[in-house]
Amino acid sequence: MTSGGASNTRGKTWLPHLLMGAGILYFLVPLLWVVIAATKSQPDLLDSPALWFAEFNLVENIEQLFSEDGGVYGGWLVNTALYAGLSALGATALAAAAGYGLARFSFMGKKFFETALLGMIMVPATALVLPTYLILSELGIVNTMWAVVLPSLLSPFGAYLVRVYVDESVPVELIDAARIDRAGELRIFWQIVLPMMRPALVTVFLFTLVATWNNYFLPLVMLSDADLYPLTVGLTTWFNTAQQDAGNRMLFNLVVTGSLLAIVPLVVAFVLLQRFWRSGAAAGAVK
Amino acid sequence: MTRSIPITAPAVDDLPPSPRPVESKPRRRRRRVTAHPVAGALFVLPFFLVVVAFLIVPLGYAFWLSLSSKSLALGTRFTGIDNYVRAFTDPVLLDGLWRVVLFGLVQIPVMLGIALAGALTLDAVTTKFAVAFRLIAFMPYAVPAVVGALMWGFLYSRTFGPFADLPTLLGGDPIDFFSASLLLVSLGNIVTWAWTGYNMIILYSALQGVPREMYESAVIDGATPVQIALRVKVPAIKQAISLAAIFTVIGTMQFFTEPQIMARFAPQISAGYTPNLYAYNQAFAYSDFNYSAALSFTLGFVVFVVAYAFVFVNRRRGARS
């Protein structure tokens, strides 16, 4: 076996750097395109060179974005943040309690439940969406925010991650000591265990947040009222209209600008919080 | 592709220095799980209720629905396994299934290969440039699949994108990324763009956990970084790689968002292009909820069995080695 150009002496790393440079270009070009395209009016979007700026129209695009269809885009943005925030908070809370319960207690059926938990991680989420829709429509809560938030609370993976984390990082002795001091179980959980679980909880929160923020299939199935749409479903409806109108209505520029604004919050959050998700990913993958 | 679970955790056991599964470690430390049966069960109860309401009941309901059929003439009646017989002889479903399998057979190895190469590079090269590469490669994960598919759809199209007309500069014909022959490749590129960085980070995290002592002697013996990567590091994170693979398979089997969005650019993406798209259209375009339930259940069941068997075998092997 010969070395593929990289050698173990320092300074001869031009090949890996070249390949990483190609990777950066590949991952960045679509994002650059959306940033550039968001600054263009619809005619420029259709006619000017794709990867370079034309007349700067971003401010007008954003103004039009938030006023089109009675300002529905602002509502989509709020809905997305609300659904994702509530789902992530709820799923994290459930995972925290369940993970702790499984890691530090014994009770009837626990062994079975832990085995089943691993299986639940493997159930493809989209196979559950259509049956859940049918059940929720019997109960009359489809086409409400709860039809999106409640199914998103299910995160077997979150519970599993917390369980592994507690096993590794919350000493039994500490809990026993608190019990000797006659602290109640809830208080032990709230004041001692919860702060120690923080890295695992941030990870679960971030991953559920992204999953719900980006989810398309669930809200597409559950919601029929445009005012309730999240960004993903809303932008698709605009895009459909734009395609059918063949560009008569100025919508393509809105789809592009709306897409840009939809990804900025998450990209920023991930870059700012990278310390957390990296330690969380490491906790899962390494321990 | 919809994937709601990060693919990190189940890689817990069997890193070479401690080949025993994690589960056995606490026993060695004589872990005392204090017996507060009611408190423990109460902590798990809320989660358990959500599992019942949004996993067990929907699966059960789908199965129950799939055992009947509805027709105008006869109303709803019990038809047993008829829907499943229909599904497994339905050329549209079988075509879609085959298409997704074919797609996965090419796209998954390509994506994971790039992700692994990237992770090994990041593990060996620690320049600022490498940090930038890591951050940028991960960014597409934060982009909704809908937006990713729209962006690539624009980039592929002749009116908006820069790529389709490139060959005309040299006098050639423009590329039609939405043609029957290129469509799967175009879709594969969208998925690869979106998920490579994510898998790379997972594998990179696993590599960071490989103790340096494992290959220190190899370094002293003059092994090249490539040799160390292939002979020491890759075997050490075998478990993480297989789990990344299985979760990617689960995601691929559910392929929905990208083809659904791309259908606006590429009209030959039919109602049954992927099994999941077919199940969706059976319910919402044809109002055949019973058949749709059978499709959902079949899809869920097949994926579940394959994935669970894979993980089970994997753990067994991990525990023995």
Explain what the structure shows.
The complex is a heterodimer of chains A (287) and B (321). With 287 residues, chain A is mostly helical. Chain A has one domain (60-286): MetI-like (MetI-like fold). In chain A, 76% of the residues lie in helices and 0% in strands. Chain A is built from 14 helices and no strands. Chain A has helices spanning 14-37, 42-47, 58-104, 110-121, 125-138, 146-152, 156-169, 172-180, 185-196, 198-214, 217-222, 231-245, 252-272, 274-286. The model of chain A is unreliable at 1-9 (pLDDT under 50). With 321 residues, chain B is mainly alpha-helical. Chain B has a single domain (90-320), classed as MetI-like (MetI-like fold). Chain B has 13 helices and two strands, in the order ααββααααααααααα. Chain B has helices at residues 24-28, 37-66, 82-88, 91-124, 128-138, 145-156, 183-208, 213-220, 225-236, 238-253, 257-262, 275-284, 289-320, and strands at residues 68-71, 75-78. A two-stranded antiparallel sheet of chain B has the order 1-2. In chain B, helix 2 (37-66) packs across helix 13 (289-320) and helix 6 crosses helix 7 (183-208). The two termini of chain B are 34 Å apart. The relative contact order of chain B is 0.15. The chains are: A mainly alpha (287), B mainly alpha (321). At the A-B interface, helix 1, helix 3, helix 4, helix 5 and helix 6 of A face helix 2, helix 4, helix 5, helix 6 and helix 7 of B.
